[in-house]
Amino acid sequence: MRTPTAGVGATAVVVAAARAAENRRADRLFHDPLAERFLAEARKRTPVEAVEVVRHPMEHYFAIRTRYFDDVLRRAVAEGCRQVAVLGAGLDTRAFRLDWPIGTRVFEVDLPEVFAFKEPVVEAAGAEAACARTVVPTDLSADWEAALLRAGFDPGLPTAWLIEGVLCYLPGKADDAVLAGVTRLSAPGSRLAGEHVSHRVFTDPVARPMLDALESVGAPWLSGIDDIGTWLGASGWESATADLTDPAVHHGRITPVDRERIAAGPTRGWIFRAWN
Ligand SMILES: C[S@@+](CC[C@H](N)C(=O)[O-])C[C@H]1O[C@@H](n2cnc3c(N)ncnc32)[C@H](O)[C@@H]1O
């Protein structure tokens, strides 16, 4: 079993580490026991210091973001989507831990090395998905649409898409290409939720230690978007962005320091949900 502790796959371990920490809290925002298993397996293989440098300043953020997207997906299935596609799924365990309506199918798309690590851990834990779950090992910079269709994705069904913590890792215009692909495969009634960073983050001294740590594990951020609403709107999506300083969103997890970082100047990143 290979461990994705270098390259973009390492970032999946970072998020799993934050979810494992959240899972240990009495007032946790979600229950994710598999996150502990992923972290334990990754730690057996490679030191994860760089991973920890990234996790610490972002821990609350990852927990809030996870819960936010859990709620968005719950709403999407309540509104009728029975097909869910998680792009850059990493060590996401929503297929196992959310209460999916009968007939829901979840596709997880990520690089082959991520699933080479993830699937044996899931199997060893004896975890059973709460929906039909299909993994699609492929590269989002290549022809991922064909791979998804071959795996049984039905473009005639309204789909709930999730692209959490992924777009900034894609090179060049690959983020545009992913959005174009999502749009092509989205039947009316589809939903899209995700996250992107703004260009400002690349020159922001507060973000520099994290960006350096990511570069040191071979996972630099490569792209950003300055106005997410315009970007989504140009492809026909109506959208709303989430403000993490909103108490309805942060569940009391934002510290004064987090609040200062988030509120200082123009946004560093976008959390969005959209509908077609
Ligand atoms: C920060 S992790 C987020 C994982 C997951 N969405 C979550 O929130 O737990 C970024 C993920 O994007 C995946 N990724 C980055 N570039 C990719 C590409 N070109 N093709 C497929 N997956 C990619 C990585 O392998 C990694 O799992």
TrEMBL record:
InterPro entries, sorted: Ppm1/Ppm2/Tcmp, SAM-dependent_MTases_sf, SAM_mthyl_Trfase_ML2640-like
Role played: Exhibits S-adenosyl-L-methionine-dependent methyltransferase activity.
Keywords: Methyltransferase, S-adenosyl-L-methionine, Transferase
Family membership: Belongs to the UPF0677 family.
Keyword Transferase: yes
Name of the molecule in the record: S-adenosyl-L-methionine-dependent methyltransferase
Organism ancestry: Bacteria, Bacillati, Actinomycetota, Actinomycetes, Kitasatosporales
Pfam families for the chain: LCM (PF04072)
Enzyme class, UniProt record, top EC level: transferase
Domain of life: Bacteria
EC number of this enzyme: 2.1.1.-
A single GO BP: methylation
GO molecular function: methyltransferase activity
